[in-house]
Amino acid sequence: MLKINEIFKSIQGESTYAGLPCTFVRLAGCNLRCAYCDTNYAYYDGREIPDDEIIAKIEEYGVRTVEFTGGEPLLQEETPQMIKALLDKGYDVLIETNGSICIGCLDKRLNIIMDYKTPGSGMSERMRPKNFDFLKKTDQIKFVLMDESDYLWAKDVIGSNGLTTKFDNILMSPAYGVLSPKALVHWVLRDNLPVRVQLQVHKYIWAPDEREGIY
Question: Residue 67: pLDDT above 60?
Fold first, then answer.
């Protein structure tokens, strides 16, 4: 049983999976309050749904890629068990987690997208650097940036932890409507920083405040 905010089918808007069809399982509840949050409707709103109903809905959509997101999906102790059940069924499963909760318990077959919050988010002090030790080389680390000071902070985290040599995919994303994508690209090219600049594709397809996809 998980407290679910919504289950829907759409395209992936972020990460190296961007543009691909995906079923999203958005769990209710979050332990952070980021300044740029675009899913605050998931802080409290949700209902308890039995595991078999969740799996049936995922199967109904017919997409083999499933992402658990939030809110913060790891706040619910039952989440790793549901992920394992889907992995056992042959699904390609992703989780987007906010970097503040230990990920050491997660199934190694899972594709982890871990946000690492910058000072501009107001939540950087809540991050767990130890989580870097639990990530696989193919997992993804994402920095959402609000300004150049966030960029320089993230660049220092990347350098001091050797992230670009340990992991294949370091992502930098401009906070939508706050930081110009062009400015971020300029800084990355100026510094020859080996990271992937990503935009939230879904916000260029649907209106930023529109609930995209098929529910």
Answer: yes
Element housing 111 (H / E): strand 111-115
Query: Under a CB-based contact definition with an 8 Å cutoff, are residues 144 and 176 in contact?
Result: no
Q: How far is CA 65 from the centre of its chain?
A: 14
Q: Which domains does the chain have, with CATH numbers?
A: 2-205 (3.20.20.70)
3-state SS assignment for residue 206: coil
Q: Please tell me whether residue 98 adopts helix, strand or coil conformation.
A: coil
Q: What is the spatial distance between Cα 142 and Cα 197, in angstroms, rounded to a whole number?
A: 10
What six digits make up the tokens of 70?
Answer: 């939030």
* 129-151 average pLDDT score: 98
Rounded Cα distance between 113 and 122, Å, is 20
According to DSSP, residue 147 is labeled: S
Give the pair of three-digit tokens for residue 155: 């660049």
Quote the tokens at residue 88.
């056992």
Distance CA 66, CA 86 (A): 9
pLDDT of residue 208: 67
**What's the gap between Cα 74 and its chain centre?**
12
Read off the tokens for 177: 């409507």
Q: If we measure between CA atoms, which residue out of 137, 121, 136, 130 comes closest to residue 101? A: 130
